[in-house]
Amino acid sequence: AELKKASKRLTCHKRYKIQKKIREHHRKVRKEAKKRGRKKPKKDPGVPSAAPFKEKLLREAEQRKQRLEELKQKQKLNRQKEHEKKRKLEAKKNAAKIQEKAEGKESSGKSKAKTNKLLDKNSEKSFCRELKKVIEASDVILEVLDARDPMGCRCPQLEQAVICSGGDKKLLLVLNKIDLVPKENLEKWLNYLKEEFPTVAFKSATLMKDRTMEQFTKRRARVDLSRNTECFGIKCLLKLLQEHGKTQNKAIQVGVVGFPNVGKSSIINSLKGVRACNVGLTRGVTKSMQIVHIDKHTKMLDSPSIIADPSNNVLALALRSIIDTEESGSAEVLEGVDAILNHSNKQQVMMHYNIPDFRNTEEFLALLAQKRGMLKRGGVPDVENIAKLLLCDWTGAKISYHSQPPESQRPPPYLTEDKIAEMQECFNLKNLEEENNKTVQALKYPSPASSIIFQSVGMVNGTIEENKVTEVPSEWENLETSKEGEEEEEEDFTESDDDQDNAEEEEKDVKEVNQVSSTLALALVSLTHDFLFLESEHSNSLSFSLDKTTDDDDAYDFNTDYV
């Protein structure tokens, strides 16, 4: 028997009560509206009969109405057309999917090739390729260094490649983010670095306007005006480049290279005066070579960052690594934070973050998370996210820390006296020193007490050659290819049923043969079979390992420039 639906009928008492409540509510709303002074909107009285040109006005009003209706109809038709187009596209996509499934392994192979092409743009090998293009194309190469740790931003492989490339290639050092370092420390570093390469003190402009941005906006964005957005060291750098161009009697190309977060793209933007290159706090903004025309005689070549070699120290990998903090594992980030805290002054860190004494990094991160309000469910401190945030602060332009230059001048083995003289040959070093002094005097600096003392690890090894890059497949790449793998597994499963039937028939034949043959023959056959099987397996494994090295082109995304 079917169940009857519940009746919606109410008792009269209940119905009248509801009606009474509604009346009371409406009365209350009207009272509040009266208090506010809101009145009912007046109806349009229309054109009075005594008004001159009444007929003309009415005609114009009718025409306006007709135009509005026509516009509405046009919009409706356009919407319908777009909807039909979308439907057709979806139908095509569905048909393509059905075809791919029917084709099987061939279609999956093609789709894999497409994904590999897309991923190759973000791969470490493509970064090396683009970096090499910049080095080969440029006449002058600017190696950008973070003033807080200049030695940790130098790459010996890059410097050696430029020096030993031959021709008239010159290497200049640009000491960026000089406003985050005490004045005395900056002067020491300038004196140390100028003995090896011509060095320019620079402070790139932040909060640069984009070409596409509107000049006047109704709603103003919140801008931190306490941070200086001016640029220092432009005249000095442009003078050096123009003088070199005059000696060469040609338009020069200037390549800007360096590790992530040193401010490569921001230097180009400040020289141009417009946001020509994309910059951001996330790593992996610059992925390929980008040409920016400064004037008739100078072209700037922006490059992706140098890849830090995995054999480097944990601290070097934490600060100079190309891996994005958001995608990297929590263990790697915690190791990096631990290395930073071990190489910096504990008391100054406590003063900067306003945190009590801590025993280890986990306790420090827990205290910092509680202070910043970064908590999980149940008030548990979010240690992983606060560690990522701290790494971003140290690689970005938030924290002021400084490292001391080496006591004795020991140039690397590839920098002989002849090579140093060759690099300094076409530049006016006296003018450079004067301009650097002007920039040093013009800026405001943090006090030595407020800047954290940091122990530098020294030069960081980088991989420039494409062949030496050893990549690990990224997580999202595996997720991309997992769907295709599932389809293949389904096909293999259907094929495996047929294989099992064949295998059962073969086993029956083998059993009949074994019954006929003697025990000695059986032993000999089994021994020879095992031996041959082991040999074949060994050869297959070798071929697989050899093939794997050539086809491994996995991808990753990284690098940010100082904003």
UniProtKB/TrEMBL annotation:
* Comp. bias regions, Acidic residues: 485-507
The protein's predominant localisation is: nucleus
- A Pfam family hit: GN3L_Grn1
Keyword annotations for this protein? Coiled coil, GTP-binding, Nucleotide-binding, Nucleus
- Please list the residue ranges annotated as the CP-type G domain: 128-309
Which residue windows does the record flag with biased composition (Basic residues)?
1-42
Segment Disordered: which positions? 1-117, 465-513
What are the protein's GO molecular function terms?
A: GTP binding; GTPase activity
Q: Which GO terms describe its cellular component?
A: nucleolus
Spell out the Basic and acidic residues composition-biased ranges.
53-83, 98-109
Write out the annotated subcellular location.
Nucleus, Nucleolus
Organism superkingdom? Eukaryota
In its UniProt entry, what is this protein called? Answer: Guanine nucleotide-binding protein-like 3
Q: Which organism is it from?
A: Oceanites oceanicus (Wilson's storm petrel)
